[in-house]
Design a protein that fits this description.
This is RecF/RecN/SMC N-terminal domain-containing protein. It comes from Clostridium perfringens. InterPro entries: P-loop_NTPase. There is one protein chain. By secondary structure, the protein is an alpha+beta fold. The protein contains three helices and five strands; from the N terminus they run H-E-E-E-H-E-H-E. It is globular and about 40 Å long.
Length: 121
C-alpha cells in the first residue's frame, strides 16, 4: 500500500512539474530552463546552471510561477470536469506584457467559465 502511494505521488509530482514548467516557460518567454516543485510545493527555478528559490524572483516573476502552479493543479485535478475558474487580482504585480501573456495562456486553457476580478484596466 505504501509503495502504491509513493508511486501515485511520484507520478503526480512528475506530471505537475511538467505542466508547471510548460506554463512558466510560456509566461516568461522561456527566460528560465526548469522549475522544480518539492513535495511541500516549494518551488525553485533553474536559469542556465544557476538554481534559484522562487522567493527571490521579482514579484511579477514569482506571481507567474505561482499562477503556473495553480493552472497545473487545475488541469490535473479538474481536466475532465466543467467548472468555473475564478481569479481575484491574479495579475496585480504584472506589467502589461506579463498580463497579456497570462491572459493569452488562460484563454487557451479553454475553461468552461472564467471569472477574473482585477483592479487593473
Amino acid at each position: 500500500m505504501n509503495e502504491a502511494l509513493r508511486e501515485v505521488r511520484g507520478n503526480f509530482g512528475n506530471i505537475l512539474n511538467s505542466n508547471v514548467i510548460s506554463y512558466f516557460k510560456e509566461l516568461t518567454a522561456e527566460n528560465y530552463d526548469d522549475v522544480m516543485v518539492s513535495d511541500s510545493y516549494e518551488m525553485k527555478v533553474r536559469k542556465g546552471t544557476e538554481v534559484l528559490p522562487g522567493g527571490i524572483l521579482s514579484n511579477g516573476a514569482n506571481d507567474q510561477l505561482y499562477l503556473s502552479l495553480r493552472l497545473a493543479f487545475i488541469y490535473m485535478i479538474y481536466k475532465d470536469i466543467e467548472f468555473p475558474v475564478i481569479l481575484d487580482d491574479a495579475f496585480i504585480q504584472y506589467d502589461d506584457n506579463r498580463t497579456e501573456k497570462a491572459i493569452d495562456l488562460i484563454v487557451r486553457c479553454k475553461f468552461k467559465q472564467l471569472i477574473i476580478f482585477t483592479c487593473q484596466r
